[in-house]
Write a structure and sequence with these properties.
The complex is a heterodimer.
Chain A (H helix, E strand, L loop, with lengths): L3 E3 L4 E4 L4 E7 L6 E7 L6 E7 L2 E5 L2 E6 L4 E6 L8 E8 L8 E2 L3 E6 L1
Parallel strand pairs in A: 2-11
Antiparallel strand pairs in A: 1-3, 3-8, 4-5, 4-9, 6-7, 7-8, 9-10, 9-11
Chain B lengths: L3 E4 L2 E4 L5 E7 L5 E7 L5 E8 L5 E2 L10 E5 L2 E6 L8 E9 L8 E4 L3 E5 L1
Parallel strand pairs in B: 2-11
Antiparallel strand pairs in B: 1-3, 3-8, 4-5, 4-9, 5-6, 7-8, 9-10, 9-11
Classes of the chains: A mainly beta, B mainly beta.
Chain lengths: 112, 118
């Protein structure tokens, strides 16, 4: 079993839809949770960073962490064609000098 | 944040040869990391590179195959040695940026080097 599971998609939705991206994990020691966005032929770009359980909102993006269920989500509201990318979840146990464990990434396409 | 550049951006190499990838950061950072992203796969950490010490390799990766240099706080190189087609992948360097007060460490990635081995 992989430490982090993420549905690879692809996921295709119409412009303006609410998008839900999810990851599950098995290591209960994970405390720091990140979402990266990766456009085609580019490096991953840090999108959201959450510590422990709870919600964090940044514009159209909301990250949720449920440590009891070992489940994290990224919601995108009012999705735009420019949101089309691969979204990777990542996590680690401690902050600083720690390797990130990544999900496989979900390829998302927003159709105009 | 940090601005990271990598050279080359892509290359096509013959099996048995070696390629050195360079990673340059616009600020001094302690921790640098090298990842591999194979087609359709997630990112896998190859090694962690601290300035002034030997790189620390993850299980499945060895120094003879992936030697790393870290001569200063803004630069690192990864060499892919004696390449085979299985080494075809995207190689990414990342850096860890110390947090501002009350925040946490964050990792930022370079644009990647797309390597094809024929």
């Amino acid at each position: 079993q992989k430490e982090v599971e993420q549905d690879p998609g692809p996921l295709s939705v119409p412009e303006g839809a609410i998008v839900s991206l999810n990851c599950t994990y098995s290591n209960s020691a994970f405390q720091y949770f990140m979402w990266y966005r990766q456009y085609s032929r580019k490096g991953p770009e840090l999108l959201m960073y959450t510590y422990s359980s709870g919600n964090k909102e940044d514009g159209r993006f909301t990250a949720q962490v449920d440590k009891s269920s070992k489940y994290i989500s990224l919601f995108i509201r009012d999705s735009q064609p420019s949101d089309s990318a691969t979204y990777l979840c990542a996590m680690n146990e401690l902050s600083g000098a720690q390797k990130l464990v990544f999900g496989q990434g979900t390829r998302l396409t927003i159709n105009p | 944040s940090a601005v990271i550049s990598q050279k080359p951006s892509r290359d096509i190499c013959q099996r048995g040869t070696s390629l050195t990838i360079q990673c340059q950061v616009d600020s001094q950072v302690t921790m640098m990391f090298w990842y591999r992203q194979q087609p359709g796969q997630s990112l896998t950490l190859i090694a962690t590179a601290n300035q002034g010490s030997e790189a620390t390799y993850e299980s499945g990766f060895v120094i003879d195959k992936f030697p790393i240099s870290r001569p200063n706080l803004t630069f690192s190189t990864l060499t892919v040695s004696n390449m085979s087609p299985e080494d075809s992948s995207i190689y990414l360097c990342s850096v860890e940026v110390p947090p501002l007060a009350g925040a946490s460490y964050e990792q930022y990635f370079g644009p990647g080097t797309r390597l094809t081995v024929t």
